[in-house]
Structure formats: C-alpha cells, structure tokens
Amino acid sequence: MGSAAREGKHPMGLLERVDDGVGQMLEQGIRKHHRRRLARLGHQSVFARASDSGFWVPRAFAPRPDNDVAVLIDGRAALDAIADSVMTAKSHIHIAGWHLAPEFRLRRGDDDPTLARMLAELAQRVPVRVLLWAGPPLPAFEPTRSMMKKVRDQLNSQSNVRCVLDARERTLHCHHEKVVLVDDKVAFVGGIDLSNLHGDRWDDSRHPPRGATGWHDIATRLRGPIVADVAQHFRDRWEEAAGEPLPSARTPGPAGDVTVQLLRTVPEHTYRFAPRGEFSIAEGYLRAAIG
After folding, report:
1. pLDDT of residue 160
2. pLDDT tens profile 186-213
3. What structural domains and CATH numbers belong to the chain?
4. Which of 48, 83, 206, 245 is buried deepest, with most CB atoms within 10 A?
C-alpha cells in the first residue's frame, strides 16, 4: 500500500494531476504578467515592500485617525442604515455602484418606496448623483449596456436625479465598487449593491428562502475624517465621467478612535487623475498576509 492509501487519502488520478498542473501554470503566468505590468507602471512596491514601511500602504491616501467604523452584516442591516442616512441628507447624496435596480427597495414594508421613487423625492431638496458602470462593451454578460442605459433613463426621467454611466475601463474589467455618501459626513463602503440582479441583496442572517437568490455580504458605515477620502474618490471619477466639477469635501471632525486608510484599484491609462493607475488594494492584501 502507498502512503496515500495508508493515510486514508485517494491517490490523485491522471486527469486531476493534469488539471492541477495546468492550473498552477496559469496562476504562475498571471502572477508574472502582473508583476511585469505593475513594474512598468512604477508600482514595484505592491509585490516588494520596503522592510521598514510598516502595515500602511504608502502610495495611497494617508491613514486617517479618529474614525467610527461600523460593520453591517447582510443587506437588511446595511440597507436599513443607508435608508436612515439618506433621509437626513441636507446638502447632497452621492452613489457609485456596479448596478442599481430602480425597482429595488431598501426596506420591505408594504408602504416602503422603490429606490427610484425614494431618490426622486430626495432629489427635490438635495442634489442626488448616481455613478454606475456602463456595462461590458459586448453583451457577453449582464448588466449589458442597453440594460444600464434603461436604468439611467429611468432614474433621470421626470426627476432631478443625475445618473451617469462610466465606461472607462480595461478590457474584461468592470467598476465593482459600492459607495453611498451623504453630505460628505457619512459613507457606506462595502460589497452590497442596491440591486437584485443575480441575487437580492436584501438578506439577513436567518437567510429565509425567497423568490430570488439570497445574498450574504457586508458593508461598512464610516464617520470621521476618512469620509473626506471616500468623497474625493467619488469626485475624481465623477468629474471625468460626468464632466461636472464638484467642490472639494470638507474633512469631518473626529468621530471615534479607529485609524482607517482608504485603498482603491484604479486601472492605468483610464483616468486623468491616476494615469499610471493605483493598486493599493492589492498591496494592502499582501501586507496583511505578510503581517
């Protein structure tokens, strides 16, 4: 008997060995490609940080102390907090996302409005700006560009909402960030789109069976100086996609005792504000893994 059999393991078959070998070759090729790519762009530190550079990513927004960070688990908690926050808006509401469904509801009571209706009502008293991905150049997967144009037109129709589609991207990439900003005083950043496309983001820890696919995810609610960096990122993208200047955000005062750094992925040769791109998320992951 071989050692694998003695340990109660099944020996790997030929097909599995071939599949494993091909997979490792592909992974190594992709890693080498991105190392060369980022080195050409001057981002060698993503893969080879200085020994004394610490945990924080140096080529990114500087770490901000004195913040309050709340981790909101699943859509029910996150979307309820977003609804509470946007209803208190006094100067503006800014939203960035991969997809937004006009018929989506942040709350699920009988009288709760659709997102399109809620934003239209809010836009009667404060500017509401929505920045969404334009969809892939070819209709290979959803949301397609025609779908996103319908979303934009639904939000803008007979409303003061200003929805803009952002088609700036690299091939086979998309804008996958999810941001809600209220008055540049509170920001929601995380993994929850305001959408039911491919899965209803309104879910909770009980995960009851429903008509649409469930969705477990998190969002963070940020208060304090870090919100100014989230606002600046939205401003960076909005000004290029919409051609509309926005005033610089005022930095909020202290709100807690947590130091936070905003990291982002910006592809090269896509935006004027970062012609060589920014890959601080990748660097942050690697720093966290190395410790």
Report:
1. 97
2. 999 999 999 999 999 999 988 888 777 8
3. 64-262 (3.30.870.10)
4. 83
